[in-house]
Specification:
2,3-Dihydroxybiphenyl 1,2-Dioxygenase, domain 1; about 170 residues; mainly beta
Length: about 170
């Protein structure tokens, strides 16, 4: 529940095959009323501006193991090999769909990928010469992970859930 001084928002979200569906969004105010909207979010994924589409495509495909589902000379879209809803895309800044004010590289973005075998992804990143910010390690909160940087300068945190007893 999100609260403000004047209104309270109530959201009921459901997970359906990896998609987030917002069933009801209601507005309750101290003076009454209420707005109910039904809708579904069909897909949400980051779209990264890149000036080197080929290098970025190779990184997300070969290092992180994502599967290309669409490739053009201006755009590439990937998904997890096991979870079609887990997607990421790349786009060149000069494409007609990108207003010029958004052509700059992203900053302040961390992309986190949860994987089944972080050591395999770490080896692929190391073998590709990816910059390692945090070497692969176990954390006391029940994760094994490493942190690298993609060709666009974005922080990539590759995580595997492990039991806290083994961390």
């Amino acid at each position: 529940m999100y609260a403000s001084t004047t209104n309270r928002w109530r959201t009921t979200a459901t997970w359906t095959y990896g998609f987030i569906g917002v069933d009801k969004v209601g507005l309750d105010s101290p003076v009454g009323g209420g707005l109910i909207v039904d809708h579904m979010i069909n897909s949400i994924y980051p779209l990264i501006i890149t000036t080197d589409l080929a290098h970025s495509t190779a990184f997300y495909r070969d290092v992180l193991g994502l599967v290309p589902v669409f490739e053009a000379d201006w755009y590439a879209q990937f998904q997890s090999p096991d979870q079609a809803a887990a997607q990421l895309a790349l786009i060149v800044p000069e494409h007609d769909s990108v207003p010029e004010r958004f052509w700059a590289a992203a900053a302040g973005v961390i992309i986190s990928l949860e994987v089944d075998d972080v050591d395999t992804r770490w080896e692929a990143a190391r073998d590709a010469g990816a910059e390692m910010i945090v070497d692969v390690r176990d954390e006391p909160w029940g994760q094994r992970h490493f942190v690298t940087v993609d060709p666009n300068g974005l922080m990539i945190d590759v995580v595997q859930s492990i039991s806290e007893e083994t961390a």
